[in-house]
Each structure stands twice: as C-alpha cells, then as structure tokens.
Amino acid sequence: MSTPGRRPIVFLLWLVVILFILAQPAVLVASDQQQNISIDDFAVDSSLESHPATGHMEPEGEATLHEGAHGHVDLGPILPLWSCVPFACMLLSIALFPLLAPEFWHHHFGKVSGFWAATMAVPFLFVYKGTAMYEIIHILLADYVPFIILLWSLYTVSGGILLKGSLRGTPLVNVAILALGTLLASWMGTTGAAMLLIRPFLRANNYRKNRTFMVVFFIFLVANVGGSLTPLGDPPLFLGFLHGVSFFWTMHILPHMLTVAGLLLAVYFFLDRYHFHREARRVPADEAEKTPLKLVGIHNFVFLAGIIGAVLMSGMVDWGHVNVLGVHRGIQDWVRDGFLIAMGLFSMVTTSLEIREDNDFTWFPIIEVAYLFVGIFITMIPCLLILKAGAHGHLAFLINAVKVPVHYFWITGALSGFLDNAPTYLTFFNTALGSHYPGIAEAQAVPLLMTEKILYLEAISAGAVFFGACSYIGNAPNFMVRSIAEEAGTPMPSFFGYILKYTLVFLLPAFAVVTFIFFF
C-alpha cells in the first residue's frame, strides 16, 4: 500500500502507460491502410450523434444501416446482447472475489480487470477490426482518461485539506455533516464533496463500533443525491447543459432532492441514534477536554476552485477540435485536463507531507479505481453501443417501452446504476426529444422540453443522478469512498450486500415516494 511520500506521482506514471498503450494501435492501423482503411475513417465527435428528426440512430435503407455520421460503421444495431457478457463478468468479479478470495483480490484486482478487458477487446478487434479499434481508443481517450484525471485531481487536492480538533460523531453531528455534504455536492461535484468530507466523517466516528451504515448513507447522499441541483454536480447534468439545458434549470429537481435527502437523513438519524445508545463506548474520557476545530491546508481550496472552474470552462467555450489517434476532442477539453493535472501537482508541491499523513492519505484508493474502471469502461463498450442504437439495437424492447415520466425515471435510473450515467442520460434525453418534437432541431426542441414537457426532463435528470447510489459502480466517488473507508478500518458490505441490505431496503423506497409525489 503506497504512502504519500513513497509514491507521489504514481498516478501520472499510470497515465503515461495508458497513453503509451493507446499509441500501439497505430501499427494495426498501418496494416489496415493496405485495404484502404484508416483510423481517421472512423473518427467521430465524442458526443452521441442522433438523427435530427427522432434523436435515434435512424437507418435510411440497408446501405446506411450501419453507417455512422462520419463514415464509420455503427456497431450498435448489430451487436448481440451476449457481447455484454464480459461486462457482467467484470461486475461479478468485483462482487464475488472480495468475498471468496479476499487476499487474491487485494493483490491481483488489476490483473482481473485486465483479463476481462482483454476478453472483450481481443475478439472485438478480431471481428470488427478498425471500427472496434476506434471504439476502444475513443472510450479510453474521450471518457476514461478525463474521468481518471478529474478523480485524481479532486482526490489529491482534497487530501491536502485537514480538519483538526475535537469532532465527535454523535447522531446530530453526523446528520449535520451529511446535510452539509449534500448541499456542497451540487456546487463542487459529488466527487469533490465526497473526497473533502469522507475523512473528517470517518475520524469523527472512529470511536464508534457500527460505522458501515454511516458510510453507505454518506454514499447515498453526498456522493450521489446531493449532486442534482446544478450541472457541476454530476456528469449527466453537465451533459444536458452542453446540449442546451440552462444552467439553473436543474433547480427544478430541488423538491425531488429534498424529498429523497429528507427521507434518508431522517432514517439515518434514527439508525444512528439507535446504534449510538446501544454501544457501550461513548466519547472517550481522555477527550473530555475539547480542542477547537481548525482547517489546515486551506490553500487547497484555491486549487479546488480551479478544478471546478476548469470543468465549467470546458463546457462553455469552443476552441476547435484536434484529432488524436482518430478521436476528435475539443481543444478546451485537453486544456482542462492539463489544468486539472497542474492543480493536483501544485497541491502536492505546496502541501506538507505531514498534513497528508495526518489525513491518513494514501494513493491506494485512486490506484484501485484506475485499475478497475479501465476494465469497466472497456467491457461496457458493447452495452453503451447497444443502448445508443436506441430502437435499432437489441435493447429496442426497453427503449420502446419508455412512454411516460415514471418510465423515464426508473429505466434511466436502473441503467445508470450499473452503466455510465452520462450516455444513459443522453440516450433518453434524445428519446424524449424524438418522441415529442420529431423533425425539430435540438436548439429549438430543448427549450420546449424544458417547459412544455418538464416532467420528462425532470424524470431523466433525477433518475440519472439519484440511481447512481444503487451500486458501488453507479457513480465515480462511490468506489473511492468505499476504499477510503476500508483503509480507515470500517468494514464495508460486498457488492451484492450493498444492494440487498441498503439499496433495496432504504434507497428504492425513497425513490418510490418521489415517484408517487412527482411522476404520477
């Protein structure tokens, strides 16, 4: 397990390795050029392309059934559902190995992730060649690398902020921390709020015996539900902002968020109060003399603001695009990623090692996320392509079943709980546009969706954000919070244990209440 001093740039080395690996397909591309196939033939923008009339990938005759807008083959309509098997196996590995072979998993989780990624990628490349190569490079360059850079920068900067003093986790104090994190999540992102508060939350409760439920409710509220009020809160809402949803429109979800958060906070308070009074241990006697609370490393808030500003900037400006290994990405996105790395490096240079050590900071949680999510991102490529194909893919029965707001809420949410919630949001966003405003350009249709069909957009937005709490992989900070908690000595439920003991018991009933109040 790494320490702040021994491996300070391990993550940057990991990125260098990833980018080196991405460069290798150039050899295969060169051989494809003998058949007049180039990776440039498969280049598309990183956003989902939709038919102008319906919002779906609409075929126009057999010749164009599998043609993308930029000349590449659209695999979504032809991929079978069993192509998602490696993704299912990846999830099962995350769920079962920590239970059945914990020692093996702790030392070899990266190899397991690589194995399932190869299981999907090798036959995928063999069958679909250049198109498959493009899809793999695209998800790594356009999705995975920015995803990990953002997580790393937030993790590094927040790890340099230390709360000192006597803070004891009584039920009221814990509810206050959870409520604060829920409010902060919409303005600094669920990842930023979670990484900022999880360590103080754990330290405040380190004398408590039953802490598992505390961390789970932290994931529910701070790492997910709280991020529903602005595009800064969660990636799907930011994607909606890029497609014309006004910045403060998401405040329409405030009643939904307050309902879920209020229910969960109330349940949490009574659970915490019950365990607090049952436990033999109370506030330790040697801490009867309280020391005042004090924030150390507060200069890192400047870097945190820089990260938030860079993310917002990348969605508000357009400096053109560059083609990297056949993937078109905005120059502003590359600038954002570079700026995020700079913020993390500045934090590392300007924050004393003592602060990070007192904060129990190690690199293991971000390394674990980096290794596991590269496997998740690669194996879920077929799932996302089939989903993006809409009514022309093998999930057409699901897409066609979505008719009313309650359908949009639960189906968008259910898929977001296990797949990337950003493309899931965009799929049903386009489905709603195509269903209600066929033939109308997006620039004119989105304002109508925000006003005339507001329930549909509320359902899509709330579902994509709220349901991210349903599993460890539902949203980026979930896994990191779990890893940090386990490092701090808090036992966490298994993948299925989390779903069975907490999601089904506490989370879904709260969503049912939201459904009956707002979507029926």
Automatic annotation (TrEMBL):
Transmembrane segments: 79-101, 136-155, 175-198, 210-229, 249-271, 292-314, 365-387, 407-433, 454-475, 495-519
Keywords: Membrane, Transmembrane, Transmembrane helix
InterPro entries: CitMHS_2
Pfam annotation, one family: CitMHS_2
Protein name: Sodium:proton antiporter
Organism encoding this protein: Desulfosarcina ovata subsp. sediminis
